[in-house]
Specification:
InterPro entries: GAF-like_dom_sf, HTH_MetabolicPath_Reg, Tscrpt_reg_IclR_C, Tscrpt_reg_IclR_N, WH-like_DNA-bd_sf, WH_DNA-bd_sf. This protein is α+β, with helices and mostly antiparallel strands. It has 11 helices and 7 strands. The strands form 2 sheets. It has a 5-stranded antiparallel β-sheet with strand order 4-3-7-6-5, with helices on both faces. It has a two-stranded antiparallel ribbon with strand order 1-2. A hairpin with a 5-residue loop joins strand 6 and strand 7. Helix 2 packs across helix 3 and helix 5 runs antiparallel to helix 11. The chain is globular, with a radius of gyration of 21 Å.
Length: about 250
């Protein structure tokens, strides 16, 4: 494959990134404008993606993401080692606590929930599998970021400083580094109303043997129930589950 064809393929796949929670359908004109390509090129991209099942035609000459993505997600779930090894542990954690248990991971610069096991009284979560979460809010993202090396964390600080400050994190690098070092040393993070005002969560990292993290495992509960829960015991259950899962994946 030539360098030109690789570049063209990358541009065509950029079409898929034009869809999100706010834009679920696009016309070919939309796509041409968003990618700054000619209309004939946009028509070619759309035709090839429709043939591959990655787009499908909807009403009024609009296109939406296609059914092939559902099939691929099925294979991703079956191949994901965290889910393969972790779902039984997550179910045990739900049985022990009665609360929802969520697995999350960092993919590129996005934190995604990959699986949820519901407890006796399921919580109303605005985020679910596949919907990107804010990087600087909530328990799972923070325990994942806490595993970054100092250079990785500094690069993130420089690239997204305005965003992290808006989310209440330290505006200066030394304080920012100490903030995440404290989470790393604790081995868990308890968030209260950070991501969704009515919810609290305890998360612990799923560690890789060579350093870094597979993601995080969290227990989510209503804030009202937090006052009657033995928080120390809950933290122990979550960190123990994360450690067991880390050992299975090592």
């Amino acid at each position: 494959m030539t360098e030109k064809s690789v570049s063209s393929l990358g541009r065509m796949l950029d079409v898929l990134d034009l869809f999100d929670d706010t834009v679920l359908a696009r016309t070919t004109d939309d796509i041409a404008g968003a990618l700054d390509v000619s209309l004939p090129t946009a028509y070619r991209y759309v035709r090839l993606l429709v043939e591959a099942g990655l787009l499908q035609r909807a009403e009024n000459s609009h296109y939406t993401l296609g059914p092939r993505i559902i099939v691929l997600d099925h294979y991703i779930r079956k191949a994901d080692p965290v889910l393969r090894e972790g779902i039984p542990i997550m179910r045990e954690l739900v049985q022990a606590t009665g609360f929802d248990c969520v697995a999350s991971g960092l993919f590129g610069d996005q934190v995604l929930d990959t699986h949820r096991e519901t407890g006796g009284v399921p919580t109303m979560l605005a985020y679910g599998r596949g919907r990107p979460r804010p990087l600087f809010q909530g328990a799972a993202p923070k325990v994942i970021l806490a595993q970054f090396t100092p250079p990785q964390l500094h690069k993130l600080f420089d690239a997204r400083r305005d965003e992290l400050v808006r989310n209440g994190l330290p505006a200066e690098w030394p304080a920012f580094r100490r903030y995440f070092a404290a989470i790393r040393n604790a081995g868990f993070y308890l968030s209260v109303g950070e991501l969704e005002p009515q919810l609290a969560a305890v998360a612990a990292p799923i560690l890789k043997g060579e350093g870094g993290t597979w993601g995080a495992i969290s227990v989510v509960l209503d804030i009202q129930r937090l006052s009657i829960v033995d928080t120390h015991k809950l933290v122990g259950l979550v960190t123990a589950a994360a450690q067991r899962l880390s050992a299975r994946l090592a």
